């Protein structure tokens, strides 16, 4: 499972091992810190909440048969979480990520946590050891190459700038001093748009 804002840096091998799927550990998915809430959906007879992996549903490599079992539970847990005011408020936009992690644990499925599966610029500076660049965060910099996160930079790449139309071809490259991961991201976007026939027709 992948997302539209994933760019594959290099061919992705099968990181899963048999019935142990592979997933990326997200620092903000913290089951043990949210035990009180998660017990509404993960009863004590299923074991400690630490059995819930700190993951979302993407990126994940999983057997089709396992996903077929997890998916209905994932949907139902998502709906129950959304209907619960406390849970919806606590989890917000990561609600479905928690729901996938809970559904997997309910089925006794544990994921192998792969830190090199994905990077997320601008916080991860290098792309040489990863397979996916996830451009979820805005990349804002001064012309001196200084990060201005939370403030629109003199140079920026942010997918939210293109909600109404796709990015143009030949985006400007970041200034010197910006992390390699950010430069690689923009270069790969430029490579893609240059090779998609009729790209300019969509703008």
UniProtKB/TrEMBL annotation:
Keyword Methyltransferase: no
Sequence ranges assigned to domain Hydroxyproline O-arabinosyltransferase-like in this UniProt record: 1-200
GO molecular function per UniProt: glycosyltransferase activity
One GO CC term, this protein: membrane
Subcellular localization, as worded in the UniProt entry: Membrane
Listed InterPro entries: HPAT-like, HPAT/SRGT1-like
This protein's UniProt keywords: Glycosyltransferase, Membrane, Transferase, Transmembrane, Transmembrane helix
Topology in membrane: Single-pass membrane protein
Primary location group: membrane
Entries under PANTHER family matching the protein: HYDROXYPROLINE O-ARABINOSYLTRANSFERASE RDN1, PEPTIDYL SERINE ALPHA-GALACTOSYLTRANSFERASE
Protein known as: Hydroxyproline O-arabinosyltransferase-like domain-containing protein
Record organism: Aegilops tauschii subsp. strangulata (Goatgrass)
């Amino acid at each position: 499972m992948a997302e539209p804002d994933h760019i594959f840096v290099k061919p992705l091998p099968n990181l899963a091992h048999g019935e142990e799927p592979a997933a990326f550990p997200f620092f903000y998915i913290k089951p043990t810190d949210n035990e009180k809430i998660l017990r509404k959906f993960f009863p004590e007879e299923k074991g400690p909440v630490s059995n819930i992996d700190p993951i979302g549903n993407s990126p994940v490599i999983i057997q089709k048969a396992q996903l077929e079992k997890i998916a209905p539970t994932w949907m139902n847990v998502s709906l129950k979480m959304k209907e619960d005011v406390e849970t919806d408020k606590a989890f917000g936009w990561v609600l479905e990520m928690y729901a996938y992690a809970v559904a997997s644990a309910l089925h006794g499925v544990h994921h192998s946590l792969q830190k090199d599966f994905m990077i997320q610029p601008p916080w991860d500076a290098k792309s040489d050891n990863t397979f996916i660049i996830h451009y979820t965060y805005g990349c804002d910099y001064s012309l001196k190459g200084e990060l201005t996160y939370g403030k629109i930079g003199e140079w920026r790449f942010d997918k939210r700038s293109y909600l109404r139309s796709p990015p143009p071809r030949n985006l400007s490259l970041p200034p010197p001093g910006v992390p390699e991961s950010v430069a690689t991201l923009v270069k790969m976007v430029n490579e893609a748009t240059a090779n998609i026939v009729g790209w300019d027709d969509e703008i």
